[in-house]
Every structure is written in structure tokens, then in C-alpha cells.
Amino acid sequence: MTVTGSTLVLAAPPRRSARRAAAPGPYARLFARPGTRAFTAGNLLARLPMGMFAVSAVMMIAGRRGSYALAGSVTAVGLAATALVAPWTARLIDRHGQARIAVPATLIAVLGSLSLVLCVRYGAPAWTLFASYAATATTPNIGGMSRARWTHLLGGSGAEHHTAMAFEQAADELCFMLGPVVAAFLCSAAFPEAGTVTGAALLLAGMLLFTSQRATEPPPARTARRGSPLRALYPLLALFLPLGVVFGAMEVTSIAYLKAHGLGASVGLVLALQAAGSCAAGLLYGTVRARSLGTCLTALAVAMCLPWAAAATGSVALLGGALLLAGTATAPVMVTAMSRIHAATPQARLNEGMTLAVTAIMAGIAAGSASAGAAVDHYGTTTPYALPAAAALASLAAATRLRRP
To answer: Where are the alpha helices (DSSP H) in 66-193?
Structure first.
């Protein structure tokens, strides 16, 4: 309502659709901040090889040495080494800065990958394969460093921080969905070492781009701090361990089920449906209000029953749809659980805290994979789908004992 001279003018309010069109979305506002697009580009480039290395190593070693047992043992030793080394690397990054520690740590990992390529190609003794792949354990947790940057820029709470954490989880799912596909294609279409060489090049290039963005890097915590955030995070880590069992058991059981039903090269495409569902759900979850951890875990426990029910019908199509729906429940859980890690960890130790959570997930994946493999041998390919559902219930039970931050 305005007054022009002696005339009263009633102006209609702008249409709701026009107001919505003018207002940028949550992701547009997020990446409008200076420097965020550049460090995110480097983050994604360096994160893609995380889904490539294990598949590339297995295909390379099995292709050149003719032994899947050797290939599996080498990757298992690398996983164990990563669980031991990664928290220490993260602690150094928190204390001395991302660029100062992440770049030399990445160079060591890249040299380990190239050493593995040379040892495999030129018939070096088997112990050199284990030593070379163990050297890749110094690879920094790029997802943790990126989350630490968002926390530094946005603070540890609020709608924008929730959107950023949802984006990071979606990026995790996207890279772990595309990584194995890219690795398998390179190792098959080019030469067995192509996946490892490409992954090493992407890791180094992405890390250099990421760490070169100094304006968004969180300041190092130079003051000496004793101990570890492990004690404060222990109740949460007890939640992340069964979550890892969910992922490990679901993957192994699904591979066995799909192969038993005559799928060969298409196994990876069906498995990618779960990651695709999680990626889409993560992006959507970033645009809505965060839910409680208990609510998200309840939805996960229900969703993990769907593949079990679909497998009982013997239909691969139904199983694919069930995996897609099950995947939509995982991203909200991971985003909300990681937010609890943020709340329980001092900002100066944030990267270390998130790496401890990732280590707990990796331990759960190893346990879930081994348990599902044994269950498939003894009970067939349908009954082991009960393992992910039981692990999801265990996560929900662990969450009931947590106190709100």
C-alpha cells in the first residue's frame, strides 16, 4: 500500500511462484561462498579413486598373477594398514594443517601405488605386493578434510551446515558408485594396471587442487593436545561399527545372489542401484529439516528388510528395486550420525574424529563381508540378507543409549 500525491494505491503482493523463483536453493547458496567450488572440484577429483583402488588392485593382481587369493590378501592387508595409519595421519593434519601434511602423505600413497604396479608387472616376490599396497594407507581422508572445511566456513550447526554434510555424503556415494565401474572398464579395456595408474594420477591432481585453496583451509591446532577423542566418541563408534556390517554384508550377499541367478558383468550395475538411491536421498535430505538419529535408523532397519523379502521371491528385478529403496535410507543415517561426530569432537580434532568414524565403518565392512561369505556357504544366497537387517537393528539399539549432544 502506497500514497502517490492524494491517491491511495493498493499494490498486489508478488506472486508466491515469483518469490520462489527469485530465492536461490540451498545448494546454490552453499556454493555461492568464495572458494567453495574450487576446493569441492579438487575434493571430488581426489575422492573418485577411493572407489577405484581396491577393484583395480584385485583385477591387476589376478590378471597378472592368476590368483584371486593373493589379490584378496593384498587388499585385506591394505585395509588393515589403513585402519591403523589413517587416524594418525588425520591427527597430524589437524595439528599442522591440511596442505602441509596431506600433500606429502598423498605422495607416499601414490608412490606405493606405482610400486605395486611395477612389482606386479615385472614379477617381484609376493611380499613386495603387500609392502607396496600397505604404503597407500597414508592416503588422507579427503572426505573428512572437506567436511572440516565446511565446518570452518559455516560453523558446526545450522541449515547450511546440514546441507553441506548431505552434499558430502552424496559425493561419497557417487564416487563409490562410479569408482568401481571406471576401474573395471580401464582394467578390462586398456591393460590390467590402467585402473591403478589412473587412480593414482587423479588422487594426486585432486589433492594438489584441493590443498591449493588456502583461503578456505581451517587453521591448524598448533597447541599440543594429549590423548585422543576416541573416549568421547566411543559410544558413537559403537553405532558406526554395525553400520559397516550393514554395507559389507549387503554387498557380499548381493554379489552371491546375483551370480547364482546368472548375472555376470551386470552385477556391478545392479549393486550400483543402492549407491544411486543413497546419492539421490543425500541430495534431497540436504534440502529438508534434519531428522533425529533414531528416526533415521528406524527407517534404515525397515528398509534393510526389503532386499531380504525381495530375494525370497527369486526375482532379480524386485531385488534391484529393493536395493534402490534400501539405499535411500542410508544417506540420512550417515549425515545425521556424522553430525553427532561433529558435536562430540573439538573442532581442532575434527578430521581425526571423522577418520575414527570411517575406521569403525571399515572394520564393520570387513566383519560384515566375512560373516556374509560364511553365511552364503552354509545357508545359500537368500538367508544371509538377514544380516544387514540385524545389523541395522543393532545400530538402532546402540543409538538408544546415546545422549543428545
So the answer is: 68-96, 98-121, 126-135, 142-154, 159-189
pLDDT tens digit string along 13-61?
Answer: 555 544 444 456 888 888 888 888 988 999 999 998 887 888 788 778 8
For the chain, the average pLDDT equals 82
The residue written with cell numbers 544371509 in the block is 384
List, as one string, the DSSP characters of 337-383: HHHHHHHHS-GGGHHHHHHHHHHHHHHHHHHHHHHHHHHHHHHTTTG
| Integer CA distances (angstroms), 200 to 78, 85, 392, in order | 15, 19, 34
- Answer yes or no: are the C-beta atoms of 366 and 79 closer than 8 Å: yes
Residue 27, CA distances (Å) to 30, 142, 174, 286 in order: 5, 20, 17, 8
CA 76 – CA 366 distance, rounded (Å): 9
Residue 232 grid cell: 568421547
- Say how far apart CA 234 and CA 56 lie, in whole Å: 33
How many Å apart are CA 382 and CA 389, to the nearest integer?
13
pLDDT for the residue numbered 18: 46
Report the alpha-carbon distance of residue 257 to residue 44 in Å, rounded. 32
Q: Are 86 and 355 in contact (CB under 8 A)?
A: yes
Find cell 591403478 and name the residue: 196
Asked if 151 contacts 218 with a C-beta cutoff of 8 angstroms, the reply is: yes
pTM score, two decimals?
A: 0.75
- If you write DSSP's letter for every residue of 25-39 in order, what string do you get? PHHHHHTTSTTHHHH
